[in-house]
């Protein structure tokens, strides 16, 4: 019992020390720590007013953890045991804090869902989804898939899954937007550049979101390197039904690029096919020479 009393006294003294520090030097970290003490620590009973008071002091100093927590409160509100709001959500205030934090992914969700001060606005949801992708270019793959009308991919993190599913409900299928997202993915992300180039080439050949453009397709086949030249050779060697007649193309490429199993609307061009095969062989030989040198 004596040990228990001593421990309680020590915790109370630590609490008082933290408050004194927060008051005396205006430390944003200390102010945030005081706020945290009001939501679950044994020595302090939950008090909403005190929690919000200290949290807001830290928010005014742009303390990131406090801003994120306050934004969460504004977005979700706080309820009592009966499930009634004791702090009503305010999505406008949440949006302002998320803007400062650069959380464009969460802003896109606010505009997609709407409520509590914000009208659902698919256009703004799309705008902030693109801002989010600009700060994380690999995410353009998922935004392109949304615009293609693809179902949510398996095995992705829960937060990304929620982002995907929520935006997929409000953003219409738009092949032109998908093409643009893939081009941004290719330009901005170092990940899977070759397979992205192949997807773009396929869209130009099929006329997805753009008029058929063989020249642009050939440009992206070249960007895709050896695999691109092999695909170009088979497509132009067999014409529009190249993909259905030659499973080699699907086998040779990344399995995820199932778009290449659809037929293209191009005429046979043996000269182009032969040139592409020559380039592919040349690249193969170059790779072998480099391996030999190593």
Write a brief structural summary.
Helix content is 68%, strand content 2%. It is mainly α and 294 residues long. The chain has a two-stranded antiparallel sheet.
How would you characterize the overall build of this protein?
With 294 residues, this protein is mainly alpha-helical. The chain has helices at residues 2-25, 28-37, 48-60, 64-76, 91-101, 104-113, 122-135, 140-147, 158-170, 175-188, 193-206, 214-223, 226-238, 242-245, 247-252, 270-293; strands spanning 78-79, 85-87. Strand 1 (78-79) and strand 2 (85-87) form a beta hairpin.
Strand arrangement, major sheet: 1-2
Question: If helices are DSSP runs of H or I spanning 4 or more residues, what is the number of helices?
Answer: 16
- Please tell me how large the radius of gyration is: 28 Å
Query: How many strand units?
Result: 2
| Principal-axis shape | elongated
Tell me the fraction of residues in β-strands, as a range: under 5%
Q: What structural category arises from helix and sheet content?
A: mainly alpha
């Amino acid at each position: 019992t004596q040990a228990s009393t001593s421990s309680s006294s020590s915790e109370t003294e630590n609490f008082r020390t933290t408050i004194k520090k927060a008051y005396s030097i205006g430390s944003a970290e200390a102010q945030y720590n005081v706020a945290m003490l009001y939501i679950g620590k044994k020595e302090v009973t939950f008090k909403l007013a005190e929690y919000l008071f200290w949290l807001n002091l830290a928010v005014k100093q742009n303390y990131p953890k406090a801003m994120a927590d306050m934004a969460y409160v504004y977005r979700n509100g706080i309820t009592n045991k009966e499930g009634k709001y004791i702090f009503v959500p305010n999505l406008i205030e949440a949006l302002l804090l998320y803007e400062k934090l650069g959380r464009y992914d969460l802003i896109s969700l606010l505009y997609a869902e709407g409520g509590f001060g914000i009208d659902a606005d698919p256009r703004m949801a799309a705008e902030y989804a693109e801002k989010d992708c600009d700060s994380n270019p690999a995410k353009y793959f998922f935004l392109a898939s949304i615009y293609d009308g693809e179902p949510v991919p398996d095995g992705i993190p829960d937060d990304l899954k929620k982002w995907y599913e929520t935006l997929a409900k409000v953003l219409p299928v738009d092949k032109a937007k998908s093409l643009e997202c893939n081009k941004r993915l290719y330009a901005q992300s170092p990940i899977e550049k070759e397979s992205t180039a192949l997807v773009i080439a396929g869209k130009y050949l099929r006329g997805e979101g753009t008029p058929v453009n063989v020249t642009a397709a050939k440009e992206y086949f070249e960007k895709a390197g050896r695999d691109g030249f092999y695909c170009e050779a088979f497509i132009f060697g067999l014409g529009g039904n190249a993909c259905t007649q030659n499973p080699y193309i699907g086998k040779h490429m990344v399995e995820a690029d199932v778009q290449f199993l659809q037929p293209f609307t191009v005429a046979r061009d043996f000269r182009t096919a032969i040139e592409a095969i020559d380039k592919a062989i040349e690249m193969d030989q170059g790779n072998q020479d480099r391996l030999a040198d190593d």
